[in-house]
Amino acid sequence: MSEKSVTWLERWHHFLKLKNERRLVVVTGESKTQSDAVQAISHFCQHQGKSMLLWGSAIADLKSINLNFRHQLGREYDVVVFNDEQFHADAFAALSGTIKAGGFLVWLPSETQQKSPDLFIQRLNRQVSADAEVLYFAKKLPDSESHELNFPTENTSSTLDFNARTQDQLAAINAILKVAQGRAHRPLVLTADRGRGKSTALGIAAGHLIKHSTEPFKIAVCAPVRESVAVFFNSAINECTDSELKNNTLSFGDNSVEFFPIDKLLHEQPDVNLLLVDEAAAIPLYLLNRLVQSYPRIVFSTTQHGYEGAGRGFATKFRKTLEKLTPNYRKLHLEQAIRWREGDPLERFTFSAFVLNASERDVRLPKGQFHVHLLNKNELSEDEGLLEQVFAILVSSHYQTSPSDLKLILTNPQAKVFVVKQEMAILAVSLVIEEGLANDSEISLVQQHKRQLKNQFIPQYLYRHCAVERAFEYKFWRVSRIAVCQNMQSQGIGSYLLNRIEDKAKQHGVDFLATSFAASALVVSFWHKAGFVMTDLGLNKDKASGEYSAVLLKAISNNHSELLDSLHFQAVRSFWYKLSTTHSDIEPELAFELVCGFSERFLPALELIDETNVARLLSGQAQLAQSAFSIQLWLKHQMKNAQTLSAQTIKTEFGLYQLPQAFYLLLRKYWLCHSDASLIQEAKLTGVKQLNSLLLATLQALDSKNT
């Protein structure tokens, strides 16, 4: 280890600290060269009292971490060494945001990445070579005489309230205080790229509230892991200097701020004046929905880029819930950088390398002037403008699009990227994965539960969950993503793209088109219209969306329609059981849309006695409770009538009600088996008598569509 290299690191750290920026350091060469560099970095950190994280494989006898990178969100390091043979793109992007001003992200490319790089690494290497502010060393870290540095003068003073570093951060602090002190049921959503000071803003606001509240004031803070709120607690302590932090609670007199893991928070339901949720996008959406319903004063804060799912997509998805439950919610986005300067070299490199700042073009389409193209991976790798267009559409439309998707697009030989183009503009994108036709040894590993095969999601799912013994013998094209430019949606472009993909699939001898997604009524409707049928509805909710995953298939050849019918029949049969048990929390709109796609051949028969029971009920000769089973069955055969329901109102002795909303109340009662008490609370009714009156009027309105 060279002492001069350590001196060089010390000078560069001081230089970058004064400039309020970070740098990417790339060290290539043999393993010994990289090991010596890491030893020098480790010695520098120990000597200077700096924090360091080694990610990936161990090197130079140093302990490494390669588990869930999301556990590092909210932490801060002076140096992160990235030594990952597989190059986990999501981890690289996320960890770059944990580095303090004055720090380094050190990438140690493996021997394979240096000598035989794939298209993703080739492109990354070009980004490194083209960036003059990346510190690239092919043999060793330099000594102290290698670079002349012009040190700037330090200026860290702040004249803003709360010692806020920017106007953005001050606005965020005031917005948080308004949630705590203003009207209830007006949650706040804070979004920002890393380094904008959102966690600090949460901490300052929390510290101010417990310091100045004259009445007992309790704050709960929640995050994916305890380590994520380290910055938050430090900021709260700096604002309320006489407070005491013990375990997970910061106390000041009768006031406190306590950290709760999400599961404990929902289980214990502590009585608090304010709930703060940091790194919200890393918490399953359905759990966030429950928080909104449980707490009247709540702030959600999340990072826009850097881990599973872009923040833009998260905000879009979560906004739908907030608009429904708390239409007066507020949103605030922090633009100004704090933890590092505007134009920070490491942030700029990361955004460019992973196309995180790509934005959609504003396109307008004259009719009939678009075509579908299958893009070449080399073309995508080398044409930055084309790659940015493709990724921008995926990021805007899919909340789970992440840097790893970029790697998949460029390196996975089974991945195909289809686009709809108008001249040079991309209007829609679909990512298709070719699956099936596995060899005997691979199939054996799956059968023995020894291995999860790559590029075999659908056949593995059908084999394990649907008992399709020959699943691997078929050829599938799985539509992993399909997205349309925001201002070109609802014009049939997505359906056009899917039809052209089906044409290509037929030419390539594909047996089935398939898709799997977090099921919502709108998305399911799109796939139903395209001729896909449900073959399974998962038992567990998708962690990112909070919705159940659905698997839908479409047979390309009539030779396989019998298998598809069998799978669909199984799915329909199990669906009715799931509705009243494991899936009783499903949205009625989704249940309705799923049933609309069921083949009438597979619906349970409506017997004469059932028709008689419903007829007697509608004519006033029977009670709802006496006819419950027949109503449940009768509703299953009324989907075509229900699809024609308009936004008209129905009249009862208690007043007027919107028909579609009343219909979904009917489904909650007879399909999802919700209690009368929950239905009365949801519909804001006065009691059982008013509920029954509304249910009966809705049944009569539905029956009138059939007469």
TrEMBL record:
Its EC number is 2.3.1.193. Its main location: cytoplasm. It comes from the Bacteria. Residues 189-357 form the TcmA/NAT10 helicase domain. Keywords: Acyltransferase, ATP-binding, Cytoplasm, Nucleotide-binding, RNA-binding, Transferase, tRNA processing, tRNA-binding. Gene3D superfamilies: 3.40.50.11040, 3.40.630.30, P-loop containing nucleotide triphosphate hydrolases (3.40.50.300). It catalyses: cytidine(34) in elongator tRNA(Met) + acetyl-CoA + ATP + H2O = N(4)-acetylcytidine(34) in elongator tRNA(Met) + ADP + phosphate + CoA + H(+). GO terms for biological process: rRNA acetylation involved in maturation of SSU-rRNA; tRNA acetylation; tRNA wobble cytosine modification. GO terms for molecular function: 18S rRNA cytidine N-acetyltransferase activity; ATP binding; tRNA binding; tRNA cytidine N4-acetyltransferase activity. Pfam families: GNAT_acetyltr_2, NAT10_TcmA_helicase, TmcA_N. One of its GO terms (cellular component) is cytoplasm. Residues 9-131 form the TmcA/NAT10 N-terminal domain. ATP binds at residues 169, 339. Belongs to the TmcA family. Catalyzes the formation of N(4)-acetylcytidine (ac(4)C) at the wobble position of tRNA(Met), by using acetyl-CoA as an acetyl donor and ATP (or GTP). This is tRNA(Met) cytidine acetyltransferase TmcA.
